[in-house]
Design brief:
The strands form two sheets. A five-stranded mixed β-sheet has the order 2-4-5-7-6, with helices on one face. A two-stranded antiparallel sheet has the order 1-3. With about 350 residues, the protein is an alpha+beta fold. The longest helix is centred in the middle third of the chain and has 74 residues, at about 115-185. The chain folds into two domains: about 5-110, no CATH class; about 165-345, Histidine kinase-like ATPase, C-terminal domain (Heat Shock Protein 90). The two termini are about 50 Å apart. It has helices at about 5-10, 15-35, 45-75, 80-105, 115-185, 190-210, 215-235, 260-270, 310-325, and strands spanning about 215, 240-245, 255, 280-285, 290-300, 330-335, 340-345.
Length: about 350
């Protein structure tokens, strides 16, 4: 590992938690020595103190070799065999060095190597295990914080995209509706004032009641009924329009203006040939409280296979469905011959 990377990891380490770790560890280590080996304050001479300090320094060396090199370079990269081999070498290095140094500084007869080996192995293993667990805990917390930040950024991005899509919905809808009003005005229809009043209700809903991501489904149905009424005035007796609503929808909430593009599309492209009996069938099935089933069907001209192509409204609504109901909706569109059929299922 490059030296710069090693020192970078050192700088990245939190100083205060490490100081606290070593303070607690040394305190516990001293208490264990006094109780297990019968040490007294007066028995500690210079050589013993130096031997103790060197043991702590060697422990620190083993711990930081593990934290700053072995774990990030081998363990986190799933090179487990190399990691465990080097970890064993790390432990063995500590045991040998500490045994040699403690033998040199301690004047009294030193324990047998096997006995000392077992004691030193347990000591360094405990330090490595505890420090590794603390490191993994800190990394896990940091990862969770990073995921929360990423989720927040994604949420803000989605909200920004939804606002942009809503900004596209309003002018597109009003453009189509004003076209209908223009057609009636050309015919000098007596129903134009009534149409304007209905249009004002639609505008009030779009401007003031669709600011949230999810709104009352019952108010959406009122909006759709007003829109259908407006279109029926424009079309007169040319087209048969049927709206069927099944189930109790009082407490349901859905994304605003999520169904209207499909209904607009049906009115725009329904066949104008009277002999083909133009019709538009619209159905909402909310008998299952966990989902809404929406269907719109109309007949069209045989030479218009794409129902006008992917207009702004349909592209927009597909994007909104993906943002608001990811993995929780099923949209199928059938365009064949003189039939155009849309089926949309939304999981609530």
């Amino acid at each position: 590992m490059p030296k710069t990377d090693f020192f970078y990891r050192c700088r990245k380490s939190y100083v205060l938690p490490h100081i606290l770790f070593w303070f607690i560890s040394i305190s516990i280590f001293i208490v264990i020595l006094f109780y297990t080996r019968g040490f007294q304050i007066g028995d500690i001479d210079l050589n013993t103190a130096i031997s103790f300090i060197i043991t702590i320094l060697l422990l620190a060396l083993s711990v930081y070799i593990n934290l700053l090199w072995l774990i990030p370079v081998f363990f986190k990269r799933r090179r487990y065999i190399v990691f465990y081999l080097l970890e064993a070498a790390n432990i063995l290095l500590f045991i040998i060095l500490n045994f040699i140094i403690s033998t040199f500084f301690e004047a009294e007869e030193h324990p047998h190597f096997l006995t000392e080996f077992i004691a030193e192995f347990i000591l360094v293993s405990v330090f490595l295990l505890v420090s590794s667990l603390l490191q993994f805990t800190r990394d896990s917390i940091a990862l969770q914080d990073a995921e929360l930040k990423i989720n927040e950024i994604q949420k803000q991005k989605i909200e920004a995209e939804l606002k942009a899509l809503k900004a596209q919905v309003n002018p597109h809808f009003f453009f189509n509706t004003l076209n209908s009003l223009y057609s009636l005005s050309l015919d000098k229809s007596d129903k134009a004032p009534e149409l304007i009043l209905t249009l004002s209700e639609l505008m009030r809903y779009v401007i003031y009641e669709t600011g949230e991501n999810f709104v009352s489904f019952s108010r959406q149905l009122e909006f759709i009924q007003n829109y259908i009424y407006l279109e029926k005035i424009r079309l007169g007796d040319l087209c048969k329009v049927t709206l069927n609503i099944m189930g109790n929808y009082t407490d349901q909430k859905t994304a605003p203006l999520i169904f209207i593009p499909f209904i607009e599309n049906a009115f725009k492209h329904v066949t104008k040939q009277i002999e083909k009996a133009p019709y538009i069938f619209i159905e909402f099935d909310v008998r299952d409280s966990k989902q809404i089933r929406f269907k719109v069907q109309n007949n069209k001209e045989d030479d218009n296979p794409t129902q006008g192509g992917e207009g702004i409204g349909l592209i927009n609504v597909k994007k909104r469905l993906e943002l608001l109901y990811p993995g929780k909706y099923n949209l199928t569109i059938k365009d064949a011959g003189d039939l155009y059929l849309v089926n949309l299922i939304i999981e609530l």
